[in-house]
Amino acid sequence: MKKNTLHIALVGNPNSGKSSLFNALTGLNQKVGNFPGVTVDKKTGVSQLAPGLSVNIVDLPGTYSLYPKRADEWVTYKVLLDQDPSVHIDMVVLLVDASNLKRNLLFCSQIIDLKLPVVVALSMMDLAAQKGIEIDVDGLERELGIPVVAVNPRKNKGIPQLKKIVELRARQLHQAPPREFIGNQALASSAILDVQQLFPEASDYMAIHYLINHEHFNLPEDLQGKIENIESVHAFNHTRIQADEILQRYGRIKQIMQHTVAEPDPLEKTLFTEKLDRLFLDRTWGYIILLVVLFLLFQSVFWIAQFPMDAIDWTFSRLGGWLGHSLPEAWWSDLLVNGLLAGLSGILVFVPQIMILFGLITILEDTGYMARISFLTDKLMRKVGLNGKSVMPMISGFACAVPAIMSTRNIENRKERLLTILITPLMSCSARLPVYTMLIGLVIPRKEILGIFSLQGLVMMGLYMLGTIMAMIVSYVAKWFIKLKEKSFFILELPIYRAPRWNNVIVTMINKAKIFVVDAGKVIMVISLILWALSSFGPGNSMNRVKASYAQQKQQHPGQAADLDKAQQAALLENSYAGRLGKVVEPVIKPLGYDWKIGIALITSFAAREVFVGTMATLYSVEGGKDADQQTLRQRMQSAKREDGSPVYTLASGVSLMVFYVLAMQCMSTLAVVRRETRSWKWPLIQLVYMTGLAYVMSLFFFQILK
Questions:
Q1: Phi, psi at 346, each rounded to 5°
Q2: Which one of 17, 316, 370, 535 is most buried, by most CB atoms within 10 A?
Q3: What domains can be seen in the chain, in order of their start residue?
Q4: Cβ-based neighbours of 338, under 8 Å, separated by 6 or more
Q5: How far apart are CA 368 and CA 386, in angstroms?
Q6: Quick count: other Cβ atoms within 10 Å of Cβ 217?
Q7: How far apart are CA 506 and CA 7, in angstroms?
């Protein structure tokens, strides 16, 4: 292992603080990719242990043991068994949760018996102390026969000591005693010896894993056949061997705990967490509290964000008005004001709401309440074909469907995973938030219910609830058509309640705002500029004919010049490429209460839902000309009229449009990730068809009953 670059695998049970340790060790020297052939994230980072010794750290997915079930657990398993050709490790840093030592030591003991160089980073010592648990770290190190270092990644404690121990092991200055964690009386057999004839470097325990899981290893056919023959000759029983192993391991772990850990009588102390859970997980009060939390979440998005949003909107309208009257009449000034500036305003005006929404969601996650939502909703989920593990991807879908769908890898049951993938896009993601906000501001009056509740906030919550309810209905129906039968289990570790890490909340809010402005903003800006071109130019001489016609009318009726200017702008937009496109789709969407401008927005926003706002900003800026430059986008849309003089945006058409965006699949990125996760175009196409059809029918229903 004497080389300049060391390759380390960072492993541990889920929720043991592994990500925090990875960040503490690598800082900003990180990158994210995918393991070859699978869609599981691959986080790697670089750390400098000492002069001339750098470390490549691979953060492997969390797992409870070396008997994998989920796709991400198989990734960790294959790396530790040296069966992943893309990752070859020299050492393992194992994060062990001191407050759940018995459970964590099972995985630790398995890695020890693989005979891999391993260093234990003992985390959650503060939580163990709160539980009254005292751990003799030196004694634990002696019992395990490997280095053990107490760390607190959140406060950067123990990190230098951990790096030093890793360096000593890398330079072979710190050797562990060559012994097995458990005796092999029950496990040792002539089958193991025969496997070791094929793989001389394999430990006894690794030989067992060759016998159990060799079908999943990338081995030549002749070796596969030889291992199969060994199994047959020795009547190797996988289930019995695993059961014997686990019993032996927990017997040895019990001895270690007796020698190194002092635990209080469990009846002596009831943790604060347990007291809260009696209330938050109550069959009645738990659901009431959940609804109150969600209600306050959406109310706060409007209450807190209203003032900064109004300020941004007012600033851009004034800036647009000033530039419109200051710049000369030229195509580039029109592009700047009605293309670039209009698109930019459509991005920045919604940043406050996105930051507030993600900040509040991060607080729920940090405090530990988000896991309780999964626990509370498991019973309901099972009735519609899912389980409690489906809740976390669905809740993540409130942020973005793409990572939410990727997180379904944690669902072992294939049918439940597929159902979760199919319904997750119905959860209202942050891309829908700008659309909801704009339309609610247009058609829902700003007033209070009972003097304290915002009507706009209630409507916002209703839209999110609509998406959730429709997701449940779709899952219930779809479960009868997906013919996969597997047993489903729901095992969830509830974290303790903690105060939120305010630095983490602030960083998350800033990062999400950056992602929206940079990633979504690029799409919005590009489409806004393309749309400006499509709205400013038309086929043949159509635009020139409109200008000539209105020039003649102005000469004949000079007193009506202002009205004729507005009519000319509307006629130019209608005869542009964008206008022609809108007229083509108008007959299809007219029953929903939409005009051709909304039709254009529906088409452009398929790239990303939030593009709807930029499209509206561009269309109404181009149509309004300089007279509209000092108006906000909301004012322009409120004054929009149909050909018969009736307003475009009424309660009926506004609600219909909101419902359409709740239910429609208006996101190419989501379809792409569904294709990647399911490895088939069948499911994304089904998703596109059913969501678009559902959106059309429900929007038609709401428009007809409200008009």
A1: -65, -20
A2: 535
A3: 5-170 (3.40.50.300)
A4: 532, 536, 618, 621, 622
A5: 22
A6: 16
A7: 33
Give average pLDDT by consecutive 10-residue segment, the chain, 707 residues.
74 81 73 46 75 82 84 85 86 89 89 89 84 86 88 83 84 59 58 86 86 86 88 82 84 89 61 78 85 76 72 76 71 66 67 76 79 77 77 73 70 81 86 83 82 80 89 88 63 70 77 69 67 74 77 75 67 76 85 85 74 71 52 73 81 91 82 78 90 93 89
Helix (H, G, I), strand (E, B) or coil at 8: strand
Residue 413: strand, helix, or coil: coil
Say what the alpha-carbon torsion angle 398, 673, 588, 528 is, to the nearest 10 degrees. 80
Cα angle 324-325-326, degrees, rounded to a multiple of 5: 95
Give buried/exposed letters for 32-49 (b at 16+ CB in 10 A, else e): eeebeeeebbbbbbbbeb
Buried b or exposed e, range 300-331, using 16+ CB within 10 angstroms: bbbebbbeebeebbeebbebbbeebeeeeeee
Torsion angle in degrees (nearest 10) through CA of 68, 71, 72, 78: 60
Side chain identity, residue 485: K
Dihedral pair phi/psi, residue 152, rounded to 5°: -140, 90
The pTM assigned to this predicted structure is 0.58
